[in-house]
Write a structure and sequence with these properties.
Strand order of the largest sheet: 5-4-1-11-12
CATH superfamily: Metallo-dependent phosphatases
Structural class: alpha/beta
Helix content: 10-25%
Number of helices: 5
Radius of gyration: 18 Å
CATH topology: Purple Acid Phosphatase, chain A, domain 2
Number of strands: 12
């Protein structure tokens, strides 16, 4: 299983918000070595998330792509960074965080035979101008853009017959009643911008950042226009408990697929959650 670098593919697998380097982010089950030769063992919940990661790549992706070649997009926030005065990092040494991310992503790059694309996430996590994410993308030899950058702020890509636009950021709401508003807005504004300059509009819009999956569809002359946000690979952080709506929700873990079928371009998603905390008998 894998694809040739110069062969067009009909499958794009998307993951995002790994936050490697955080005690609540993605970490291999065997743990990692720290800078001073000590070690870190992931928590029980991190091991559950890692099991989901392995199931996603070992079981779900081969089934969803029917064993066909695929490309991979890591849509921002691969690292947790040093941010907002937080103390939840495994290590605030970005070299350690990068080593965790490389241990996570190098096998995935091999799965897609090097067709790995990376977009840039939030500066609070990956540095000004995403300097830490760009260095990670350089180390992983991600596919460069037209200017030679190994990570990019946005990706325009063709999957099968469809045009995809992917970028990390999107608006966030504290209310589930309005969760779809920004997702729909991204699609409609891209339609308006394409019409203004007589460019081809995207068939699928991909956003991340929220750590929550949601998809909207609108009918078009070619079938459907699709806009979705991706789930993440990070457990709830202390910051989430400050957000109305966020503090009462459970983490959403998972990834997505854009696939060209025999006729239509369509999407599939795999999303897990984490069990609620134990109910205490008072």
């Amino acid at each position: 299983m894998g694809c040739k670098k110069k062969t067009r593919v009909s499958n794009l697998v998307i993951v995002s918000d790994l936050h490697c380097g955080c005690q609540l982010g993605l970490c291999p089950a065997e743990g990692i070595v720290l800078d001073e030769a000590g070690g870190y063992e992931p928590s029980p919940l991190q091991k559950i998330v890692w099991a989901c990661w392995r199931e996603f790549w070992d079981v779900w992706v081969p089934e969803a792509t029917r064993g066909e070649p695929f490309a991979v997009l890591v849509n921002g926030d691969s690292l947790d960074g040093r941010h907002h005065g937080s103390v939840t990092q495994i290590s605030q040494n970005l070299a350690v965080q990068s080593n965790i991310a490389k241990a996570v992503l190098k096998p995935i790059k091999d799965l897609c035979d090097g067709r790995l694309y990376m977009t840039r996430g939030t500066e609070a996590h990956v540095g000004a101008s995403a300097e830490a994410e760009e260095q990670l993308a350089v180390d992983l030899k991600a596919v460069p853009d037209e200017y030679g950058r190994r990570s990019r702020y946005e990706l325009w890509g063709v999957v099968g017959k469809g045009l995809v636009h992917a970028s990390h950021h999107i608006g966030i709401t504290g209310s589930s009643h309005y969760e779809s508003s920004a997702v729909m807005k991204e699609l409609s504004e891209l339609y308006a911008e394409a019409g203004r300059w007589r460019n081809r509009p995207p068939d699928v819009v991909v956003r991340s950042h929220r750590h929550r999956h949601l998809e909207v569809r609108v009918p078009t002359s070619l079938g459907y226009g699709i806009s979705f946000t991706t789930a993440g690979w990070q457990l709830k952080t202390p910051f989430v408990y400050k957000i109305p709506g966020g503090r009462i929700t459970m983490p959403q873990i998972g990834g997505s697929l854009i696939r060209q079928g025999d006729e239509d371009l369509f999407t599939r998603h795999r999303t897990w959650t984490i069990p609620r905390p134990k109910v205490e008998i008072l």
